[in-house]
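Is this the right way to post structure tokens for a design question? Let me know if I should format differently. Anyway, here goes:
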């Protein structure tokens, strides 16, 4: 199970700790949300747990309360940016486009979001 307190080599653990700057959107007891460096929509926010977990399924098994808190936070982020509708993406595994292995939900909103995704 890839869940632990923090990983010293993880870029998102460093953002959570404040060691790397990011445009923080919200902070809760369990989560931190910040704008994506390579925004793909007018709203493109990443919401992450403070604890290190590789992906959403690992997090849900090890700490379901944290996974639920992360999901609740996604709507608050979208509404905070003025959007009732949003897309939530968890790329899971390198072949699915995951490049940072600290679970993060992409909250995307503010433009037409086509289906199927690329
Ligand atoms: P994914 O491909 O699903 O693992 O998404 C990783 C996202 O993280 C990608 O859209 C770019 C973003 N990202 C990577 N490094 C940083 C960083 O240091 N700061 C911020 N704000 N975003 C980052």
């Amino acid at each position: 199970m890839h869940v632990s307190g923090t990983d010293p080599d993880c870029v998102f653990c460093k953002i959570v700790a404040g060691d790397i700057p990011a445009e923080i959107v919200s902070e809760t007891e369990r989560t931190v949300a910040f704008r994506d460096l390579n925004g793909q929509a007018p709203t493109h926010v990443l919401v992450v747990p403070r604890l290190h977990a590789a992906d959403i399924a690992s997090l849900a098994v090890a700490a379901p309360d944290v996974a639920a808190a992360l999901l609740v936070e996604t709507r608050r982020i979208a509404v905070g940016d003025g959007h009732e509708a949003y897309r939530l993406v968890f790329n899971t595994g390198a072949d699915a486009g995951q490049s940072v292995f600290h679970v993060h939900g992409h909250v995307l909103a503010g433009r037409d979001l086509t289906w199927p995704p690329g």
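Format looks fine. Someone answered above. Worth noting: Residues 78 and 84 are 7 Å apart (CA to CA). The pocket of 2'-deoxyguanosine-5'-monophosphate is lined by residues 11, 20, 22, 34-38, 46, 91, 97-100 (CB under 6 Å).
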